[in-house]
Amino acid sequence: MTQRRERSPAVSASIAALEAEVAGLRKALQNRTVIGQATGLIAARTPCTPHQAFELLVQLSQHHNIKLHIAARRLVTAFVTAHLGNPVAPADQALWDYLTTANESGGTTTAMSDGENDTDGDANTTSEAGT
Hints:
single chain; ANTAR; CheY-like_superfamily; mainly alpha
């Protein structure tokens, strides 16, 4: 006969904390993926570098007061929807319109918008990863 050991409250709390951390990391990985997709779409559809595309995405998120991963998800969804020939939601179309206008007017606002002082081409890695 096998005996079942009771977990101590400390062990149970540690397990719960680790499970919550794993769930948070999975969510962060999903968010990072969609942010990368949106950055690639912006870079492909507007005349800018991937670094500038990320800056435009951040600017869009701040201007519309929405979280970065939500802005990214809406842009990717709008692109796929339009690519399939379906009408894009007006609010999502407004995000693309904002990006086009911001990029045409030189709307990237950070000091390194052209990659200056960026010797390895990856200046904003820490802020991108933490999003």
